[in-house]
Amino acid sequence: MNKPLLETVRAGFAYDKEAVLRDISLTIGEGEFIGIIGPNGSGKSTLLKILGGYLPASGRVRFRGDPIENCSRKALARAIAWVPQEHPMAFPFRVMELVMMGRHPYASPLRFETGEDHRAAEKAMAVTGIAALASRRFDEISGGEKQRVMMAGAIAQNTDALLLDEPTAALDIKYQIEILEILKHLNQDENKTLVVALHDLHLASRYCHRLILLDRGRIVKDGSPADVLTRETLEPVYGVRVRLLADGEGGIHISPEAPCNS
Known about the structure:
- This protein is of the alpha/beta class.
- The chain is 32% helix and 30% strand.
- A hairpin with a 2-residue loop joins strand 9 (210-215) and strand 10.
């Protein structure tokens, strides 16, 4: 594994005393492309928030060897970008304005936008293919375009790592592939560390180098797609019998057949 970027040791989290995550121990190396998978309610979003320092966890969470709680919010924002699943907007921002918000970790009360900020935003919009949308209002563009705008803001943040919560949710297959191809480029060509929560197991197997399967707040399996996506592992977690088929492109199709108790 590459040099550790994020580590958790027996980390956990509870909402109103109800445990959501328990005994999560893992190491994320620099340059990895990791998919977090599991049924609804398994703790995927909560794990991402803990890794980004957005939620206080029990146990230990380290960023580059230091306790994450000792890192300032600005320092973390310069190292780790967060792309949530939903993007409610109270104001009709233009696309360029939203992408420029990714430069906030570098701002100070007396600092105006610089040429470096604009270059970073323009590069991010080029990478995500939204340069032509710069002057459009966010509430006037499609769901797939909105997702690329939020990714462009994260890319403009110029971090080493991106945490993404269901970036392909509610998108048709064309936009899903576009989003994942952008992530593949960021990982392979720019060595960005990616940790992505995904529901689509086939796409997770095609794009992610490593999968972490969660169920009821615990890690069930952590390994390569071939190691994690097996009948023996998936059927007890998802409660259905499945058929697995290699797609010839490095991915694994998972077809549900019937509930396990039928």
